[in-house]
UniProtKB/TrEMBL annotation:
This is Dihydroorotate dehydrogenase. Substrate binds at K44, N68, S69, I70, G71, L72, N126, N191, T192. NCBIfam families: PRK07259.1 (NF005574), pyrD_sub1_fam (TIGR01037). Keywords: Cytoplasm, Flavoprotein, FMN, Oxidoreductase, Pyrimidine biosynthesis. The lineage of its organism: Bacteria, Pseudomonadati, Spirochaetota, Spirochaetia, Winmispirales. Its cofactor is FMN.
């Protein structure tokens, strides 16, 4: 059975990865996550400068998912290289850097430095960041900004370039096409959905930033629909994520047109979830006489 997934000219050993921001820099999960069997580790966002992140509380549980407003807290590019990369580069699984910034130059800086100093498997470009230059609008909501940014990054690297789409747009297909036109090799679909929770005793938002990103089971149907719609709009691979809590959830994404998946919030519930999901996918493939992950891709076309 072939579980590998090709992106550009590189291969992920299996289709189940750990999502950015939920597995830190890897060392946090040492002994808990089986890195020998992880399809890919997507790092916490890397920005040029260190970031403190937003005021607490910045994670709140709701009835169907998690609200987070981390604010891209991270150690910054310099300490990423000196403190985090040595451990990450020793892992047996592919490591993909999640890259963020508040202006296009930030992304270019991070990718060009990582190009020079690491053998990173590839890059996942988090375009759900506010664009300071354009007055705070999210970079990933403007097709022309996404296409230009992707094209500039493309010039810097021959490694796989994955653009991570935000669902907080009117038509996600337009953004997906813009990334493909700019030269993206794959799309991650989806980032968190805008959400909010109110503390009724204090009569004010629970999270100081007021709105936050919703993840977990509540967003799975949104993610599935996004993958399906994006699948009809582009021809590059899609990495499906959003609310995957078990193998059946992952299989839904694969049947909707994803080539592989990531698990985020599910890792907080069970750090061994990636292996369980991988085994569940294998079992399903056996039962359905599938030989390769690419066999999933035929189904959505029949609907
Ligand atoms: C605490 C937390 C931190 C996150 N940090 C990042 C990040 O740094 N970069 C990014 O692209 N996505 C980040 N995400 C989004 C996840 O990677 C993922 O897209 C989202 O949570 C949906 O997947 P899930 O429902 O499996 O968690 C974060 C999510 C959570 C819950």
């Amino acid at each position: 059975m072939d579980l590998s997934v090709r992106i550009r000219d590189k291969v992920l050993p299996n289709p189940v990865g750990a999502a950015s921001g939920t597995i830190g820099y890897g060392s946090e999960y040492e002994g808990l996550v089986d890195y020998d069997r992880l399809g890919a580790l997507y790092t916490k966002a890397v920005t040029p400068e260190p970031r403190e992140g937003n005021p607490i509380p910045r994670i709140v549980e709701t009835t169907a998912g998690l609200l987070n407003s981390i604010g891209l807290a991270n150690v910054g590019l310099k300490r990423f290289l000196s403190e985090k990369w040595p451990y990450l580069s020793s892992l047996p699984c592919p490591v993909i850097a999640n890259v963020a910034g508040s202006k296009p130059e930030d992304y270019l800086q991070v990718v060009s430095v990582l190009e020079e100093h690491t053998d990173m498997w590839g890059y996942e470009i988090n375009i759900s960041c506010p664009n300071v230059k354009k007055g705070g609008i999210t970079i990933g909501t403007e097709p022309d900004v996404v296409e230009d940014l992707t094209a500039s990054l493309r010039k810097l690297t021959n490694r796989p370039l994955i653009v991570k789409l935000t669902p907080n747009v009117t038509d996600i297909r337009l953004i997906a096409r813009a990334a493909e036109n700019g030269g993206a090799d794959a799309l991650s679909c989806i980032n968190t959905v805008v959400g909010m929770a109110i503390d009724i005793k204090r009569k004010r938002p629970v999270i100081p930033q007021k709105t936050a990103g919703l993840s977990g089971p509540a967003i799975k149907p949104i993610g599935i629909a996004a993958v399906y719609r994006v699948r009809t709009a582009v021809s590059i691979p899609i990495i499906g994520l959003g609310g995957i809590m078990n193998a059946d959830d992952a299989i839904e994404y694969l049947l909707a047109g994803a080539s592989c998946v990531q698990i985020g919030t599910g890792l907080f519930v069970d750090p061994t979830i990636t292996v369980k999901v991988l085994e569940g996918i294998e079992e399903y493939m056996k039962q359905n006489n599938m030989n390769s992950i690419s066999d999933f891709s035929s189904y959505w076309k029949e609907w």
